[in-house]
Amino acid sequence: MATAAFNLALINPSTFILPKSPNPTKLRVCTLRCSSATTNAVPGLSERPWKTSDARLVLEDGSIWRAKSFGATGTQVGEVVFNTSLTGYQEILTDPSYAGQFVLMTNPHIGNTGVNFDDEESRQCFLGGLVIRSISISTSNWRCAETLGDYLAERNIMGIYDVDTRAITRRLRQDGSLVGVLSTEESKTDEELLEMSRSWDIVGVDLISGVSCKEPYEWVDKTNSEWEFNYSGRDGEAFHVVAYDFGIKHNILRRLASHGCKITVVPSTWPASEILKRKPDGVLFSNGPGDPSAVPYAVETVKEILGKVPVFGICMGHQLLGQALGGKTFKMKFGHHGGNHPVHNLRSGHVEISAQNHNYAVDPASLPEGVEVTHVNLNDGSCAGLAYPAQNIMSLQYHPEASPGPRDSDYAFGEFIKLMKKVKVNA
Could you tell me the mean pLDDT of each successive run of 10 residues in the chain, 427 residues long? Predict the structure, then answer.
């Protein structure tokens, strides 16, 4: 690396502007000489010891955002959404509902707690990439097993930082969710990346099949005792629940198990007839990624089960229930993503702070008579929960298990238990 020495000479001392002094005879005039010289590079010293911009995020609106990369390298396309959670980035990374998306964290500082092997919400990371403002250069958590950058690199997930996430968030709020391309490949031009973003679409794509399990399995793990927080309303009676895996989070299963349920998890394509042969006490339709209209086979499965056993739908499961009941779903402008969304429980009158992650919603005006809207999102008035007592149906358009997020809505699992118990007693 070349270094330069500068020597400035002030030929005319009068160019100095000095403050007035009560004793001007003590003033001193200094001479500063300036010259430039080039020296040889110091052996072994990197030309730039700091990381420079080596990545681009190109959005379909034509904007190009220079950034620095961490995690995996390459080129990836996805829908950009922003998440307002302050913590819990590892749970967000492993939430299958983010398949096909780049998650932009509005909280500027990410990575300071590293990652561990206890907070995984699925078997792998399904999202397309992570966009953050500042990555922590150190980790300080007693459970930390490795850094965020190493974690993403091992799982082939791209990440970028040192980008203006506030400006991108404002753009997404104004224009709606945008398709973007992340790339660390200098050989690809901006025009090529822009064309990639404009030729890709997430609407109408079946993303559930790529995140669902392939074979049925039994789930037995409960919430770890050190994280358990709700023992009320349990009488020891066990209920058999079949959970459809549309991209299910582990903490949903843990909460059901903690409430005494025996759980069988089945793939998204599992026939309803096979489920009914098992004579379960209830069926859970889980969260999952993408457009509910892109998975008509799942809607048909829900239709075949409705009225046969009590059902509980969460997020994608809520949307599929809405369609199965004859309602319509629509794509939201930029969706709900974060652990701080206020929801009004119309039955109790309480306001819950909820964890949410969805880009689609049910149109309550399209639902048939008898279907009750039980929860409303207070940010935009969208439908956040449904009930149809005539067919023992309940659903939420957010995550009662949180992880990450507040625990205000954990009672929903207890309500599902009560619903199954009522039907069992009356059978």
Answer: 40 42 47 44 57 96 97 97 96 97 97 94 96 94 95 97 98 97 97 97 96 97 77 68 98 95 98 97 98 98 98 98 98 97 98 98 97 98 98 98 93 97 91
Report whether the peptide linkage leading into residue 43 is cis, meaning its omega lies within 30 degrees of zero. Answer: no
Rounded to whole angstroms, what are the CA distances from 413 to 10, 243, 383, 407? 79, 13, 19, 12
Check 60, 91, 352, 401 and give the catalytic one: 401
Q: How far is it, in rounded angstroms, from Cα 131 to Cα 110? A: 10
Catalytic option among 125, 261, 315, 383: 315
- At 18, list the tokens: 């000095």
Q: CA-to-CA distance for 406 and 274, rounded, in angstroms?
A: 36
Q: End of a domain among 175, 198, 221?
A: 198
30 catalytic per annotation:
no
DSSP H or E segment with residue 37: strand 37-39
41 in a structural domain: no
Q: What angle do CA 223, 95, 288 make, to 5 degrees?
A: 105
CB 318 within 8 A of CB 385: yes
Beta strands in 72-190 (DSSP E): 75-83, 101-105, 109-110, 129-131, 134-135, 158-161, 178-183
Q: What sign does the CA torsion over 273, 277, 281, 284 have?
A: negative
Whether residue 107 sits in one domain with residue 29: yes
pLDDT in tens, 330-352: 999 999 999 999 999 999 999 99
Task: Quote the Cα angle for 399-402-407, to 5°.
Answer: 110
CA distance 138 to 114: 8
218 with 265, same domain: the answer is yes
Is 401 considered catalytic here? yes
- State whether 180 and 271 are in the same domain: no
Is residue 336 annotated as part of the catalytic site, yes or no?
Answer: no
Amino acid identity of residue 260, one-letter, is G
Partnered with residue 362 across adjacent β-strands are: 329
d(CA 172, CA 177): 5
